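Why does this matter for the project? Reviewers at the last site visit asked to see concrete outputs rather than summary tables. In response, this paragraph embeds two records directly. Each consists of the residue sequence and, immediately after it, the corresponding structure tokens. Nothing has been edited or filtered.
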Amino acid sequence: MKTPALFASILLLATAGTLTANKQPEVPLTARGKELHGQYTKQLETLRTEVTSAVPAIDAEKKTRFMELRAKWDALPAVSADTKPNDAKAIEEQTEAIQSELLSVGETLVTDLKPLLSSDALDPKLMRIAILTHATPRGLAEYAQQGADKEKLIGQLFADEALMRQILEAGGANGGAYGNMMEIYNAILAKSELARERGTILQRLALGTAIHMPWKEKPESGVYGIVHRTQYEIDQVDRYMYYEKAYLDGELDPAFKDFNTWECRFITDSEYSNDDLTWARQMMRTYRPDHITTTDYKWRYTRFIKSDVPYCSTTHDPTIGSQAQEQVALGGICGRRAFLGRLTTRAFGIPTRASTQTGHAAMSRWTPDGWAICLGAWWSMAWNGPQGGLDFLLDSQSREFADDYQLILRAQWLGDAFGEEDVSIKHGQFGKGGGFWDGLAFAKKQLIVKKAEVSALELAGGMQLGESDELIGDEVGEDIEIPDADKKIVVADDGTITIPAVACYSPRRSSDRILFLKSWEEGHQLHYSRLGQRPELFKYRIEVPADGEYELTALAATVSQNLQILVRVNRDEPVPFSMPFTKGFWENSAPVKVKLTEGNNIISITARTPNRGVSIKNWQIKPVK
């Protein structure tokens, strides 16, 4: 569990790297654009004057001391691998001392200002200020000048206070592109009647999609928000409708229905096609259902990357199948694995984000106990676009306390009203800079997390930047009870013998190589993992009525090509048995001929390492006539 000194320690761990936003060139304003620019500018100036004049006086001594401490915080040197131990210790002590006093003064200021920060009286003006500041009058004018319909969308936004609140609570429109966001949101509402009901999960998902993916037309404004990302060639309306259907069909994680708008914005934002998202769900239900039902949310869905996507050189072969099918089959280094981790997680409606790290790519994801990083290093070494990992972690933790988070928002909005600089969100500049109000909002976030003793989740998979194929210690499958009916060997009228894969007499329990799994739909299956300490045998006792030649086939599921296992009958030499490449679905293998003797026979199966994984539902033995 992280201690209340969390923010001192994570500051020391933060690297010195910074990110810059590459602003797009300004779009020339038409005559109407210039007029609108003037209107939006005047509106912002008027609102700022009205709000600042209504703010009560602040204790000058406390404010001065708070800003002095903020300046000391900003001046703290970064600790790196080259810092001498004694120097690092001195910096850490200084950091803890400054942080302690800063939060103490900040707490008294928040208490003094609580009547202001707890009241929603100024919210209508503050919210308009926040949007005008984020979007900028120029950015709004560039959008609105494109036509009366575009101009109307901006007016519609400013007329809807409940919608403005929901948008701002969810972090605002990506890139400050509020016009594009409104365009997408209205397009979704026009197509989905269910999304029109405010407060429902589908309305939250519709707005989250629109907020996070304002790329129906490329935003021309040079304003970038916290979550700016690369443009994908995806229709946002179709993407929303895809998730609406998946939700109504019961395809998504049980937690999906309770996600707020901020969390929803990290669900639909995938570079993969809807077909790939569907494939990922269906494939995992067939091939690795255990990764869907695990109670360890850090690894639910994501564990598939560790278990079945090899860490190897990244290659390409589009003849294999879709983008996702190709990548899973071939494996790759960290970037590909992180992308696939986000695919498997989003396929089931779980929020996830990129987690870029120096020389490495990882991912972060929602869990019921807070956000966690998978396949990489901790938050202090991560960023996504212009937002550092530590800033995201702190924000995600403080958002769990909705009433207190309203105080944070109002303090930030007041910072916009006074035209102050925001506290830095950049990697390597955690919590630095900013004016009084935004600095107070940052301190309030820290106070919330400190008082609640919120702990950051440990890494899923340990501190493995390269995220190799090494085992992490918990690969042994769950020990499950398999009903006798699911192990019953059946003989058909034509003599065909069907042997459930889990009917082996050895082993009887799961290991790190051989897993007994409950199938998604019915029955059970056996999985022979690509990971494990060493090759293992699984054996069957089969009784046949007569000596002769038989055809052995398997109903199997694989996600990789060219998988061979070894089959040994009694004391004969092992023979290779080719498993089909099924793209994760059940398919019968080509038969291999084996000689069996009347009565009991032992069939032993294994695979040479390294191997890829295979799930087997059953075996069939058919007499050759």
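We now turn to the second protein, recorded in exactly the same manner.
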Amino acid sequence: METTTDRPLCLVTGASGYIGGRLVPELLAAGYRVRCLARSPGKLRDHPWAGDVEVVQGDVTDPASVGPAMRGVAVAYYLVHALGTGRGFEDTDRQGAQVFGTRAARAGVRRIVYLGGLTPAGVPERELSPHLRSRAEVGRVLLASGVPTTVLRAAVIIGSGSASFEMLRYLTERLPVMITPSWVRTRIQPIAVRDVLRLLVGSARMPADVNRAFDIGGPDVLTYRDMMLRYAAVAGLPRRVILPVPVLTPRLSGLWVGLVTPVPAGIARPLAESLRHEVVCRETDITRYVPDPPGHPIGFDDAVRLALKRVQDAEVATRWSSASVPGAPSDPLPTDPAWAGGSLYTDLRERPVDAPPEALWRVIEGVGGENGWYSFPLAWSVRGIADRLVGGVGLRRGRRDAHRLRVGDSVDFWRVEEIEPGRLLRLRAEMRLPGPAWLEMCAGTDGSGRTHYRQRALFHPHGLLGHAYWWSISPFHAVVFGGMARNIARTAERTAGDAPGDGTPATDRTAPPALRPTR
């Protein structure tokens, strides 16, 4: 019988990063044990797999911490780099690779696997951007370590949370007309994150005599302009107008990207500077060791579709809840940076309620229809009329039942997407909007056992119009959503002693006139 210690042990550095955080569950699923080396172990605690791995504190530039972390390791993954840390990142990258390779050799590690950047053919290394130059140097250091090493060299990785993909996402979604740097004409061979992870896991099983770099990419070779246009098409955006101008230098274009997107400038600028050179695979030798299964490699359009699938499928809880477990490597993780995953605007309201949770839940489950929306009835009426004028459903649908809801029920211009009786009601908007929207209401208790009401309105903008829509209505949120939270709490307190079931909605019996349903 196989024991836990019979399974090979993998060391993963950079587990709090984009690739590392997605690689760990893939290694676990493939039957490996995993140890993570992290400078701040606390950053890993919210990962769904945190309880299934060993976490040790350390830094790749510190031999005293890397040495012990290597004990018993069969395969060591080097997935860290100092991009975004400021000047001197090349020295830091070099030092980390040297320490990692030396300690791996001393510990008898069987293989090192490193994910680097795809470098352009025929371009002297001194002419590369500092980002690509450092990536290439780290690969060389590890290959010379004496430990058989696999260096995978990728260009743009397509997956929600990838810095390169997020840059593409924000540029395309926020700018219907773009004056762009000349590098939008540069040819690039992007790769889906699912394929990157598949190749990283497969590299652990390479024969001992393999010590080399491999170019990895998807089936499509595109210019950055092509990528933006195809992203817009997959995302359902109008065709973008892209006007390249030669006067934008790599540095200026990096500043431009940092201004337009929420990707930190320390990351956006080096990535933008790297786009001035063509990055296309020169060989596909990796398939000799890690063959492509059916359906792989994934094409650009499908990779974008997978990256956008979470929001398009309205699985909001999966993307934006810290307790979520991603369903696929292309899904966002709760530990991704705040700027990853696209824009999601949120209006959050919370209040203590002097009533039992079940009284609060009766009010929550009774919203809409004849029971109204508990705030500014005129605003809801106007919104319903406006929706009807543009071909929407308006407020005319009401409710199937005045007291009870179930998944799939219509509630005015909302649809019940999720309901956990006594705790959670999530509605998805079916009114005409430039992007999907949700309204979430929760009944619970706080740390002291007091009833607590939590309300979230969420909106995922679709293009520039979506952003403009949110900011145009945000001044009214305090009245509409703030008033709604306040009046739901008050109604629960007033009706706490009423028992349901007499045929009259509790909210209608005691709500003040201003909160009566909008007829």
